[in-house]
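Data availability (excerpt). The following record was deposited with the supplementary files.
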Amino acid sequence: MPIHGMPDTRELRVVSTSTYVVYEKRSGAIVHVHESYTFEGAAEPRDDGPARAILMAGQLGHRVERLEAVNVESFDERVWQRVDPKTRRLVAQAVGPRRAASTAAPRKTKRPAKGKPGGRRSR
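Predicted structure:
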């Protein structure tokens, strides 16, 4: 069922697709993948794809001043990848166990000894 005011996309033919990978400038870590489609009969897209991809990443909460975007031929989300900041090309990465601070076990804190400030009161 078409959305009110929108054409039924089953009747539209895609004539071009552009994929932009948004990554952190320093590390090359990918933070967003943006795809742009041009349908038959539509005006050719402006050349603001990378800027738009970064803008969208910013709307998702990323700090845009730390980001770059690069146009890629294809992006396979099943492969762990990053962008080499020097060559601006996708690089496949070996996936190993990741450690994140948010998943680390919380530290156990010692209780103060009895009779010390903050310790248990005796009755």
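Summary of structural features: Residues 100-105 have pLDDT under 50 and may be disordered.
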